[in-house]
Amino acid sequence: MSGEKVLKTFLFDVTEEPKSIYPFSPVYKVEQGDKSYIVKNTRAPIEKAMRIASFVERLRKLGVPIVTPVPIGVDNPQQIDEIVWVVYPFIKGKSYTGKDEEIYEAGMLLGHIHSLSSTNNEEGLRTYNEFDLEEQEIMEDLEKIKGYAEKRGLSLDEGHLRRQMLRIIEKQDTLKALDLPSVATPYDYKADNLIYNDSVKPYLIDPDNAVFLPRIYDLALTLLLFHNVLDTAPGRVFDIKQWFLFKKGYFQFVKITDIERKHWQDVVKHVFLDEVIWLMADFEEGWDDQRQVGLFNSLLSLVNDMKFYDLK
Q1: Residue 94: inside a domain, yes or no?
Q2: pTM, two decimal places
Q3: How much is the pLDDT for 157?
Q4: Which residue range forms the structural domain that includes residue 34?
Q5: Residues with pLDDT less than 70, the chain
Q6: Residue 156 has what pLDDT?
Q7: Residues 179 and 128 placed together within one structural domain of the fold
Q8: Contact 76, 37 (CB under 8 A)
Q9: Do 114 and 58 belong together in one domain?
Q10: Are 249 and 137 members of one domain?
Q11: 138 with 55, same domain?
């Protein structure tokens, strides 16, 4: 779809095709007068997009620093052909760099968001239900990963990883049946979706994957992929000290239950199966990026030994 058409639909004054500022999906930065905006895809159909808009607006009113659709004279979000688009304000600030205070504040912000959630999905968000992961698809992805590693002369204990993933596949029904505390959350809580101001307070800029799910699944995704993609982030998962700092911030708002602690490691491995395996299999160019390869290697080490990555 023409980006120019999208921007004109939102009444922006443009005369040529805009260039995306994000390599993996169309994201346009638009200057209009003395203000800057971001135009991007959000959830389809429009009903889901409106629920996300309502969710983030509620968080904003409760004091959470998070982007919300801007009033611009036409419907926002809006469906254009088959795609739903939204206009957010452009937030000025600095990217995450892995400083201790940035990590602690990031934990605080996620804890704050979780603490404000309803317990029964009053927000009306889609519900996480990724418990039908197919063994054949996972094994095919593992074969791809093995091939990428071998092609670049990297060592990979594919047999051990395969056995771990098969064990998690077998536990899907058990995990699905657990009665875990659930929350409404953006569920894409990563460093590249945070902008920091001068007082090192983060602002969440991409809430469009919002979902209702057990909160430790959100924590698991954060542990695994917080440092994914962003060039200014460390090329590895949180080290033990960083994980402690993130938890310390998070626990300012949330008290973890015994059942969450008991099943934490299995949940992390399930999210690894759901979110990380496909990333490593489908993002071959990442294997040519030394920072990304470092992250991949640390992810494999993490799921192999989670001794120090607890919820205590």
Answers
A1: no
A2: 0.95
A3: 84
A4: 3-89
A5: 1
A6: 84
A7: yes
A8: no
A9: no
A10: yes
A11: no
Half-sphere exposure of 87 (CA within 13 A, CB side): 23
CA-nearest of 187, 178, 242 to 220 is 187
Find, among 30, 28, 35, the residue nearest to 3 by Cα: 28
* Residue in the block written with tokens 């003395």: 34
Q: Which residues are registered as beta bridge partners of 36? A: 31
Q: Which residues pair with 274 in a beta bridge?
A: none
Looking at the fold, whether 47 and 115 belong to one and the same domain comes out as no
Query: What pLDDT is recorded for position 154?
Result: 87
The number of domains in the chain is 2
Q: What does the DSSP 8-state code read for residue 192?
A: G
- Which pLDDT belongs to residue 22? 87
What DSSP letter does each residue of 10-35 carry, written as one string?
TT----S----SSSSS-EEEEEETTE
Q: Which amino acid is at 23?
A: P
Cα 49 from Cα 207, distance rounded (Å): 11
Please check whether residues 39 and 108 belong to one and the same domain.
no
Domain boundary among 89, 114, 132: 89
Residue 67: give its domain's CATH number. Answer: 3.30.200.20
Say if residue 248 is exposed, middle or buried (CB neighbours under 10 Å; 0-12, 13-18, 19+): middle
Separation CA 133–CA 179 (nearest Å):
20
SS3 205: coil
List, as one string, the DSSP characters of 258-300. Answer: HHHHHHHHHHHHHHIIIIIHHHHHH-GGGGG-HHHHHHHHHHH
- For 65, counting Cβ atoms within 10 Å of its Cβ (0-12 exposed, 13-18 middle, 19+ buried), the class is middle
* Residue 310 included in any domain: no
* Torsion 128-292-296-268 (CA) sign: negative
**Of 199, 190, 192, 195, which Cα lies nearest the Cα of 219?**
190
Pair (156, 300) in one structural domain: yes
From 89, 124, 156, the end of a domain falls on: 89
- Distance, CA of 182 to CA of 41 (rounded, Å): 26
Give the pLDDT score at 159. Answer: 86
43 and 119 belong to one structural domain: no
- What are the start-end ranges of the H helices in 131-257? 135-151, 158-170, 172-177, 215-225, 240-250
